[in-house]
């Protein structure tokens, strides 16, 4: 059975920030391609939630996966509830020390 996908406020906000940036720097075709990549990634994670890489050993259910060469998706897998909480869309151009999750 597929996992339910839950968007946190931070995930939605960071997704929108990335879309806003893309609207300034990319064409509408490239933006549509990015949105489609996110949709496909979420559908895949719903079926195979453990495919992402573990963030660290202290929090094995917090994982990340590459959405685009510059965007990572950090999420929390809740196997007992059969859910995934999307935590943040992280632009890899940012300082990784600023990423404070788990």
Give structural notes.
- With 102 residues, this protein is of the alpha+beta class.
- It has a single domain (4-92), classed as RelE-like (YaeB-like fold).
- The chain has helices spanning 9-25, 28-47, and strands at 4-7, 53-56, 59-68, 71-78, 83-91.
- A five-stranded mixed β-sheet has the order 1-5-4-3-2.
Q: Key terms for this structure?
A:
5 strands; 5-stranded mixed sheet; alpha+beta; 2 helices
Number of strands: 5
Helix content: 25-40%
Structural class: alpha+beta
The separation of the N and C termini measures 27 Å
Rounded mean pLDDT score:
88
CATH class: Alpha Beta
Number of structurally distinct domains: 1
Give me the CATH architecture, please. 2-Layer Sandwich
Contiguous low-pLDDT stretches (5 residues minimum) are none
């Amino acid at each position: 059975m597929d996992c339910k996908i839950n968007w946190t406020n931070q995930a939605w906000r960071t997704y929108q920030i990335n879309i806003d940036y893309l609207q300034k720097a990319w064409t509408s075709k490239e933006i549509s391609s990015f949105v489609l990549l996110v949709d496909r990634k979420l559908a895949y994670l719903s079926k195979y939630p453990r495919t992402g890489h573990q963030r660290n050993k202290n929090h094995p259910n917090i994982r990340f996966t590459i959405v685009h060469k510059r965007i990572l998706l950090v999420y929390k897998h809740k196997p007992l509830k059969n859910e995934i909480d999307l935590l943040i869309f992280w632009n890899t151009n940012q300082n990784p020390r600023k990423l404070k999750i788990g």
